[in-house]
Amino acid sequence: MAVVNPSTLSVGSVLAQEAEFSSPLRLVSGQEIGPYRLAYETYGRLNARADNAVLICHALNASHHVAGSRPDNPDDIGWWDNMIGPGKPVDTRQFFVIGVNNLGSCFGSTGPASLNPATGQPYGSDFPVVTVEDWVHAQALLADRLGIHRFAAVMGGSLGGMQAMQWAISYPSRVAHAVVIASTPRLSAQNIAFNEVARRAILNDPDFHGGHYYAHGVVPRHGLSVARMIGHITYLSDDDMAQKFGRSLRGANDYRFGFDVEFEIESYLRHQGEKFSGYFDANTYLRITRALDYFDPARSHGGDLAKALAPATAAFCLVSFTTDWRFPPERSREMVSALMQNNARLTYAEIDAPHGHDAFLMSDPRYHALISEYFRQVHRTLGRTDD
Amino acid sequence: MAVVNPSTLSVGSVLAQEAEFSSPLRLVSGQEIGPYRLAYETYGRLNARADNAVLICHALNASHHVAGSRPDNPDDIGWWDNMIGPGKPVDTRQFFVIGVNNLGSCFGSTGPASLNPATGQPYGSDFPVVTVEDWVHAQALLADRLGIHRFAAVMGGSLGGMQAMQWAISYPSRVAHAVVIASTPRLSAQNIAFNEVARRAILNDPDFHGGHYYAHGVVPRHGLSVARMIGHITYLSDDDMAQKFGRSLRGANDYRFGFDVEFEIESYLRHQGEKFSGYFDANTYLRITRALDYFDPARSHGGDLAKALAPATAAFCLVSFTTDWRFPPERSREMVSALMQNNARLTYAEIDAPHGHDAFLMSDPRYHALISEYFRQVHRTLGRTDD
Questions:
Q1: Bridging pattern class, strands B315-321 and B346-351
Q2: Smallest Cα–Cα separation from A344: which of A298, A375, A379, A305?
């Protein structure tokens, strides 16, 4: 007899959808972009009250493909498949879950590699700089299209958590719960510094061609690869790297006294960089890191985060990870403190997990138990909201 | 009446010297390099017993110009001038201090930019990979030349501290005190990862030309600049960066929605990168980061650092800084633990200083008081050694 562990169930094969928007989107920068397209996937079913929708916001390099596999590729599993599915922490038997690719990305939504209707050529560097507010604005228009007035939850990790936070600020009446994981209310100087080095590596690559590399049939893959390597170091904890790679040599018992791959960690990073530069768009990388730099809701309130969060009526669930040195627990505690000043409903957990920033993508049992329980409660309250 | 604070005194204007070595140096890699030249400076006077010499070993980007100014440029102050001089922690009225530029560097000693006698062209990528052991070996030959059998102290911070450690292991009878500051007995996977990204940035720069860029009249300045920016982030603490730069914008009150310099931290890093790429040799950068990667005295002792340090008879003074995340206090404690296993004479201080790894170059009062007191004791024992 086969015993099925529900936590291993998947939403199965999922076809991506597209929503076209003919009216231009007015951006925070003052520029407009349009017409534009958003790629998205959905899992589960929207209930009759349309109050069981959960929006999943993605981080730097992810997409709308959050869970399940793709019809054309059963091995292409969604980036948060361990979190979303039948019997998983965000249970698709109870919730209607939406994954959306952000504007400016490179996985189906309109971005720098898309054709600019004004020129018939890819936008390239003419694609505007988009912000977290802009993404949230576009996501809200998609929600309108899908008949969702109010989300049971908006949820994300890292940059995705910033979007969840921004939702609670921009559209208080449309978010019942904001689930903000491994995130920060603003980048630190060190965070910006790493982003800037990554951007320099891309901008200095001779194959960048001022952002119009598509026309040259090349991509700035060296620069993008270095950018990804830098990013990757900041996603892992020092200890985790030490445990996984240590000082192990690659394919040799002794030093070879050269600059080819010598240590396992070098091999791993190069591989990550090369793989990434093969599928990710450099112009998108520039824009998403800039959106990270710019996010700072307290900025227009004299640095007062509590004031920035004052409009929010959502209940918040915040999670941080002890070994995350990119967005360490201190950053989440700032949000907790601001939300407590506002008497917001709030759950906060600091998970003692070894995997650094990437922990938000892993299935640490305590972390997943917390999210499961949180969403069980969210589910219990469905139908009770009256706004 | 002018009151002179002795701590503000300088060794004054110092002329660099050169020592030529006609016999090739056999390197750890098995290669040989020679003839070769070492550039050095000295401050103070060697006493009659020749037992008051202190060797200062430099870190990645520094040189033999440790203290004082240069005859041709009074503004070119040595990199550790706050530490070395009359009345300073290493008092040049008592000690004969030597700064030496390491083999493979680019400030006067033979390195990749030097002419290869075999070809009449710069060595470029034909310059061998040198190690900490090789540097120490060459320094010992310089000491022979200067009539110094035994150093009162060998001292350095970061990579310089590794050399001090290696001296105590390689030449136990020639080092009375090893002063090892903000150092580590080996790089972590994360340390190697940062070095590797920096090297990729250089190696991928089209102006690198396989290391033979001298012949093309160019230098891989973009790659070297990115390398330096990465390094620089790891030298500063997160808090220090936050305090110095925070999220301040450069020359504007609002975001400009582009990829030019926007934040002060970006401006600072770009400036550091550009300045560095104007004077430092990329081939040297590759080699020095590799020497850092390779340093691991415990490696040939099955990872047992105490065994590696067993030959050492020197007294050790170790210092680490609480906010140094490049070589954090834990790394120094590993050395302390190994030395305690060996019943070595040992002083260890963890200085609570905000400046990250770079703290070893700053004049934190507690740090300098410690080094002052340590060297007063070293001075008191001069003449008493009998080996």
A1: parallel
A2: A305
Give residues with Cβ within 8 angstroms of A18, minimum separation 6.
A37, A38, A39, A40, A108
Cα dist from B303 to B184, B210, B309, B334, whole Å: 14, 35, 11, 12
What are the chain A neighbours of B129 within 8 Å (beta carbons)?
Answer: 257-258
Q: Is A302 on the interface with B (CB under 8 A)?
A: no
Selected catalytic residue, list A105, A158, A170, A277: A158
List the structure tokens of A105: 């990305």
Strands A36-43 and A17-21: antiparallel
Per the CB < 8 Å rule, is B270 touching A201?
no
d(CA B222, CA B202): 8
CA distances from A319 to A335, A353, B95 (A): 11, 11, 56
The H or E element that residue A159 is part of is helix A159-170
Closest alpha carbon to A196 in A286, A120, A315, A66: A286
Are the C-beta atoms of B317 and B156 separated by less than 8 Å? no
Going from the first residue of chain B to its last (387 residues), give the mean pLDDT of each consecutive group of 10, the final group possibly shorter.
Answer: 55 96 98 97 97 97 96 94 97 98 98 96 97 98 98 98 98 98 98 98 98 97 98 95 95 91 96 97 98 98 98 98 98 98 98 96 97 98 68
In the stretch 32-91 of chain A, residues with CB closer than 8 A to chain B read none
What residue has token string 């768009």? Answer: A281
Q: Is B4 left (phi over 0), alpha (psi -120 to 50) or beta?
A: beta
Structure tokens at B296: 């691991």
Name which of A133, A192, A254 to mutate to probe chain B: the one with the most chain B Cβ atoms within 10 A of its Cβ: A192
A303-324 in b/e form (b: 16+ CB < 10 A) is: eebbbbbbebebbbbbbbbebb
B203 and chain A: CB distance < 8 Å anywhere? yes
Q: Are A177 and A153 in contact (CB under 8 A)?
A: yes
Kindly report the pTM of this predicted structure. 0.96
Pairs of residues, one from chain A and one from chain B, whose beta carbons lie less than 8 Å apart: 143
- Number of residues that this document lists for chain B: 387
Q: How far apart are CA B386 and CA B21, in angstroms?
A: 30
Q: Which of A189, A201, A242 sits opposite B245 (nearest CB)?
A: A189
A200/B273 CB distance under 8 A: yes
